């Protein structure tokens, strides 16, 4: 973590996990880290390893990607955007060191340098119905469309969705921007508030608890723009393509509410009566819900979803209540 930003957050104390329904929140994204890929071969290097078309990524565009095992299991979910001399990759901080090491093994003679950029840029999320208005009031740019970014001094503002933005600034600049957002009306909140926004957007984050648990289609990754089926080979491509064109996806990701006193952990097993004590899926991401309990993204058998009764942690554990995603499932 980084100096001025770290000191600023220490002075803030513990930020609330739950906020009022409909609030626009400003959230320190301490759960995320950044890998920088720099050099003239950055695009082809990443293109050959990741699930999306890096070669066609526009200068002001951002896109979702995955890095997979040869068997198509996701090791990381990534948000990638271009810089003047390369790319930045945002991912879960708990898997960053291992992923950086693994990606570095592929560099060989490529003219590219990979590094942990988490100390060079700090991240904050802004989410809610007034995001564009409050960013502008704080003197920050508002990218015109989702998956676009705009320069902000020595950093960027990346628009992930209609109402979700990431502010990436040097650690000595982000505290002032965060305070300006709060002064404009954003409610400072803990990481659960950002996770809730991404859960409601149906955007999963692979963490250490769920590495290698899912192929792309289980996380709806082809539905949210995370996979190109026109590009060439990359690790796991054959499995992802075969699943898309020849196979039937037996598991999908759903949004759920869990009425529980304590948060279930990502990776927690799910159970359905027809399968007794055999797991039918896992939780992906979990966040405190404004009305109480927790909202989550859950990957499970589509047949169990159709049957309707699913429990977390044990066959008699808390029940899942299914909620809508903002996109249709096949």
UniProtKB/TrEMBL annotation:
<protein>
    <submittedName>
        <fullName>Folate-binding protein YgfZ</fullName>
    </submittedName>
</protein>
<dbReference type="InterPro" id="IPR045179">
    <property type="entry name" value="YgfZ/GcvT"/>
</dbReference>
<dbReference type="InterPro" id="IPR006222">
    <property type="entry name" value="GCVT_N"/>
</dbReference>
<feature type="domain" description="GCVT N-terminal">
    <location>
        <begin position="30"/>
        <end position="212"/>
    </location>
</feature>
<keyword id="KW-0809">Transit peptide</keyword>
<dbReference type="InterPro" id="IPR029043">
    <property type="entry name" value="GcvT/YgfZ_C"/>
</dbReference>
<dbReference type="Pfam" id="PF01571">
    <property type="entry name" value="GCV_T"/>
</dbReference>
<dbReference type="InterPro" id="IPR017703">
    <property type="entry name" value="YgfZ/GCV_T_CS"/>
</dbReference>
<dbReference type="GO" id="GO:0016226">
    <property type="term" value="P:iron-sulfur cluster assembly"/>
</dbReference>
<dbReference type="InterPro" id="IPR027266">
    <property type="entry name" value="TrmE/GcvT-like"/>
</dbReference>
